[in-house]
Fold:
Amino acid sequence: MRLIQKIPAPEEVCDRFPITESEKKKREEVLAELRHIILGKSEKKILLIGPCSADREDAVLEYVSRLAVLAEVVKDSFLIIPRVYTSKPRTNGDGYKGMIHRPVASGGEDDLVSGLLAVRKLQQRVIQESGLFPADELLYPSLYPYVADLLVYMAVGARSVEDQEHRLVASGMKIPVGMKNPTSGNISVMLNAVAAAQQQQRIIFNGWEAQTEGNPFVHCILRGYTTMAGESVPNYYYENLVKLYDRYYRQNLSNPAVIIDCNHANSNKQYDEQLRIAEDVMTSCKRNRTINSFVKGLMVESYLVDGAQMIGESVYGKSITDPCIGWEKTTELVQKVSEMI
Structure:
């Protein structure tokens, strides 16, 4: 291992791109509403929506600015939280790894310090220019303090949900955290992650021994799974929701809650299926009051342009990782599903 450069302390980065007092107040209001939804004190649903990965600042800012207008239209049905995912897990280590991995101009190695500053700046500008507060994926737990005062939601991905550090750091967070089912589809793994994160934990974090308080707002995200033969298997159906609700109670977890990821293995990455899946989930909610209170919202992958682009295409506002629905289909999905709540 070759040491390259020392990463600046969180305070140094946060001071470069600070949050204002009025933004802090607004963020607390959004967090309060999120917690009310998870606690079942609000009939609104959460909608986590945005690009598969936040690849470029200008396109992401245009997207969230449009999203802010749409959020106002459906505010009585949805609390919209933009996905601004700045780190991207890779199954085999190849490919785009997120904005945090910013290539050096001369090529070759990544400049992680520059990437860290770019991440903080983007999340701050999302708040300033849209008034919305972002969600990100907890890929690198040690980087959470660099954006902790900006985010209102974190997701732990299918490849990270079994990791001890992710679970224990989530137990110390002051924001809701969603635990995805692993790619194998093992529901016990996801529920054990929720259980660990809801408890108080003694952990090592960024050079400190720390005591967490436990996070009662940690919950499940169903994203489908993949068989050994490589086939995608959805797990958003009514029967899946009933079984998961039963498992929640048998394991005596706090605040039963699930969010349905409408893409990934639930759609077999057929991004156009996301509207149908969202409608199916809302239909399940209409059939059963218990399921309606259990399902707290949806996750949708959406950007300015339909689909995904190949390396070197450089299409503004089109995903460079998983395919997403474009803006017209996004508007249709949000408006149609909001009418079902």
